[in-house]
Structure formats: structure tokens, C-alpha cells
Amino acid sequence: MEIGITQAHLNSLDAAAQFIIDASPNQSFYTFLGSMGVGKTTLIKAMAKQLGSQDNVTSPTFSLVNEYAVEGGERNTIYHFDFYRIKSLEEVYDIGYEEYFYSKQFCFIEWPDKIKRLLPENYIEIRISRIASDENTRELTIFKH
Q1: pLDDT one-digit tens code per residue, 27-74
Q2: 2-144, CATH topology level
Q3: Angle formed by the axes of helices 13-23 and 40-51, to 10°?
């Protein structure tokens, strides 16, 4: 079910991140879909900031998962995954994905299509696409599963 659509310019990324958070109350599991270089990690960085993290958010491309602290609230951790480089689901099993996914903490997943059958029943999907007329603006479509 689509729950929102917005455009995000690099100058208004914090507002777009807050829009996503506000459009998905009580949710903690988010997937991010989009082509290479479209801005998935950049959006995750803005969302982490809006949720209260002061940590340096970077892509976990080689480590598979990064962990960021969140100040205040019952959810005090963000787990940021990047599954672009995985070759098999065994790699995901080996890191103990269930402990992260079902921790009730925030989980942000890049390249979720690589692990689709492991995704929980309920999550928010954010599709990011380029706007042809403006290199610095993206269209964000938000779905609830």
C-alpha cells in the first residue's frame, strides 16, 4: 500500500527524511530501493540524523552492517545494512540477521531485493528514483508492507 510520495532536493533532505518518519509512525524496519548512486545512503544519513543519531553514517558495503546510536526513546540503535555485495543468503545467516531484524531497533536495508525472502512481514519500502530534469532532486515513493 502506497503511503506517500515526495520529492527531495539535496537542500531539503532533512525535511524529506522527517516526512518518511512521520508517514510511518511506529515502524522501525525500512528498505531502500534504487539504482547505484541514487542516494540511498545519503537518505539513510538524513533519517538517522532526524531520529537523533550523531554518529557518522557511512555505507556498510564491505562490513554488511553498521551500527549507530540514537539518543532518547525506546529504540536506541540503528542497524544499517548494505547487501549489494552478498553472493548467497548464507552470508546473511552467518551474521545472525535475525538478531538484528527482530531486535525492535531501527533497521535500514539497502539492496533488499537480494534478501527478499528474509524480510519481515511488516516494513516500509522507500523507492528512490532520479528526476531527469534535476540531478540534485529525487522522487521518493513510500510503501507499507
Answers
A1: 999 999 999 999 999 999 999 999 999 999 999 988 899 999 998 778
A2: Rossmann fold (3.40.50)
A3: 70
